[in-house]
Specification:
Blueprint lengths: L15 H17 L2 E5 L5 H15 L3 H4 L12 E3 L16 E5 L14 H26 L7 H4 L12 E7 L15 E4 L5 E6 L5 E4 L5 E3 L6 E6 L1 H6 L9 E3 L5 H4 L3 E8 L6 E2 L11 E2 H9 L4
């Protein structure tokens, strides 16, 4: 990403021809596997590490403390998501995790009194927003769209009302040795993401698995100083299946030593503006048109 990372001061000064090769490589990976790592993206690893350290301090607080920052049940998403309250896959029981959502559009300024928590989350969100727009440019170019800024224009309300792009800090606590785990429980059940793209910042503890084109799940080891990107359902519909929304999961580890390890990740879920109509860009009509808002509402309803 060095030719179009955040270290490139002005994205407007970069010619389409300069990024053409990177755009083609990116779309090639996202059409084959649906996931890829990017490096030289311009977000310091030290910032991600600082955020994860602050997150861990918060998640290790007593439930009574965390309850003060609970996500409201009024449709807003900002706030703490308690342990074992989400089910991403209806064929499994509740996910063995908790989380903290940050969505500026909710306009909620309720933050834990934990050093570096609010500042690092906001900084990573803002940098992720900037990086996401550049990646959307590369996807537009890689898909050979006449307007190289098409996808960027469909996400112009990120961080504002009318767009529900969200950053989620996931926390997978240790599993006590004497705990009987339900065979149907996973840390994060099999699913594909719902929106356009996801940027994933992982710690150094493995656990993520993705499904190959042959239907087999394989482990994806974290790579330092990289961001993992994957396609969401709406992007697959937009691209008429040229880009693939790959299913992925985090299972309960088999080995006792891995069960004793905390795992953390941060996902930046990029979604189009709510009123954007998702129609096949090649005019194939492979999928019925749907608004971003309607699709996301339909998919999120069973999760809680």
């Amino acid at each position: 990403m060095s030719v179009y990372g955040l270290d490139v001061v002005s994205e407007n000064a970069v010619e389409r021809e300069t990024v053409q090769s990177v755009a083609e490589d990116l779309c090639g990976a996202l059409s084959d596997v649906g996931f890829c790592y990017i490096k030289n993206h311009g977000i310091p690893q030290s910032l991600i590490d600082k955020m994860h350290a602050a997150n861990k301090t918060f998640f290790e607080m007593p439930v009574e403390y965390k309850n003060a920052y609970l996500r409201p049940r009024n449709g807003q998403l900002h706030g703490w998501v308690p342990f074992e309250t989400e089910t991403i896959n209806a064929e499994r029981t509740v996910d063995y995790k908790e989380g903290f959502n940050y969505m500026p559009a909710d306009n909620i300024e309720l933050w834990p009194d934990v050093e570096n928590f609010e500042s690092s989350v906001k900084e990573v969100y803002n940098k992720s927003h900037q990086l996401a727009l550049r990646i959307l440019d590369l996807v537009s170019i890689g898909l050979k769209l006449e307007d190289g800024a098409f996808l960027r224009k469909c996400h112009k309300l990120i961080s504002q009302k009318g767009n529900t792009t969200l950053m989620r800090n996931n926390y997978y606590p240790t599993i006590p040795k004497d705990k009987a785990v339900n065979p149907k429980q996973a840390r994060f059940g099999e699913h594909s993401d719902y929106g356009t793209l996801t940027l994933l910042y992982q710690d150094n503890v493995s656990g993520l698995e993705i499904r190959t084109l042959e239907g087999e799940y394989i482990p994806i080891a974290p790579i330092p100083d990289t961001v993992l990107i994957n396609i969401g359902d709406l992007m697959q519909r937009w691209s008429s299946d040229k880009l693939i929304a790959t299913k992925h999961r985090v299972l309960i580890p088999d080995h006792e030593d891995r069960r004793r390890k905390v795992r953390q990740s941060t996902a930046f879920f990029i979604v189009p503006d709510e009123e954007t109509m998702i129609e096949c860009l090649d005019n194939s009509k492979k999928y019925e048109p749907v608004s971003s808002k309607d699709y996301l509402t339909m998919m999120l309803k069973p999760t809680y």
